[in-house]
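Q: Hi! First time doing this. I have a protein sequence and I read that you can turn it into a structure. Is that right? Here it is:
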Amino acid sequence: MKNLAKHLTMLLALLVIMDAGAAMAQSSSMQEKEEKTVEAIYFHNTRRCAWCVNLQKSSQEAVEELYAEELKNGTVKLVNANMQQPEGAELAKRYQISNVAFVITSGDESTNLTQAGLAGRSNPDSYKKVIKETVDRYLGR
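A: Yes, that's right. Below is the predicted 3D structure, encoded as structure tokens:
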């Protein structure tokens, strides 16, 4: 009888440990999904030329059109970073940006889409497609 009680106690303890492990794994998986965010960062100076303003406008409009729901729930964020302000300068240093740029980031990864934005002046749909492909890749789609 003592052996049976001992075995039942060990079995119960094992079940509790397994259940706790499964709960931790599920929590970790949910946390990874929650932490998956993409930032679309437009880097600029205080004074901007027409092309710089156009890059911001076309980039922002594309992200807003393609990712309206993700912008609402915070999965995708639009950031305007003035490199002549402390916060913008810090971001520019982090991503090694020294000129006007449009960068898509997620975690430690980033993709500079400035050249695509330059080419997108003559073909806005191709620029929008590049933005979509890049953001979707970071979102795991």
